[in-house]
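2.7 Reproducibility. Because tokenized structures are sensitive to small changes in the input, we list the exact sequence used for Copper amine oxidase-like N-terminal domain-containing protein, including any N-terminal residues retained from the expression construct. No trimming or masking was applied before prediction.
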Amino acid sequence: MKRKLINSISIIILLCLVAIPTYANQTIKIIVNGKIISCQNPPQIVNGRVMVPIRTVGEALNVDVDWQPESWYNGPVGPWHVYINNGYKQISMYPNETVVTINDNGIRNNIIIDTPVKVIKGSVYVPISIISKILNCNVLWEKETSTIKINYSHDIAQEVLNNWSDSVVSIQTESGQGTGLIFADLAELDASLKNHYQVATCAHLLAEKKDISVTFRKKSFKCDLIFLYATSVNPSGDRLEGPYKIYVDYASNAKSDYDLTRLVLPAENESFTPLSLINKADTSLVKTGDTVYILEASNSDKKIVEGNITSIQSIDGDNGPIKLFGTNAPVDDYASGAPVFDSKGQILGVLKGPSSETGEYLIIPMSYL
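Resulting structure tokens (single pass, no recycling of outputs):
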């Protein structure tokens, strides 16, 4: 009887050992670009796989990592998941799952990892093999010294130029020029408007202008206003006439003080997928001294201009205060209407003309568009 009891207990212990993941207790260091990273929750070896706390690694690489209750892409999906924001790229993963979803400039792909995402002592852990794929860095595991080495070079200016150049256009009128950003496809509203795109720019550039054209992919296209809502341009709020009149109310919350407008770019025979603007910068976190990048366009030439936030201002609007950011970026005269990006490559706003009081260029947050 005693022997049977011992055998039964032994079997139960073995089954428990099989069911529970094994966690090694050895001390593992993380070194990012030559600097040792302090980990409140250190890396672990789980069933022979090296796992790292994704929030700790993300902070070291200047990448936002957060819990989200729903998918940014398809709405509510049930359980909470981990959301990683790497500028123009968003990554989503779920605890105990092996599927990692990447939204790269609006293109959604799934990656299968060999070890599920784990939650250990309240922190989310991922295998180091996925770090290089989702965060574009080099990862090396040195087993002899129990060290994870991560080398990361993040040239935000070059990434913005590479990813957004085709979306930025040069705007010409009879009296000057500026820059604009293609941000939406009108065919999504009306299938008959294939290859017609919406362009965001500053309203003051187009005030009382009759001859408006856009240079896109080295070709020039005549353009029409969808609506213009700057006080000096359209104070009565009357609807504009023309073939796109039905789209005047597309942004029903348009206010008169923002100095923003939208153009229709009828780019016939030019198939183009506008990049998603879902990844806007959080303007509540902007502070003086922050780095910004402005992507200018002059005809077919594009260039990045770097500067800093020099002031945070508020002006009175028809429906409450409007936040503006001042910048010392040495932009060209044609930069009005250019998109502005923050230090993580997230779109922050649109550049308008210089302030009459301070002379600094002002940034209109994209959330007002």
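The chain has three domains: 22-154, 169-266, 283-368.
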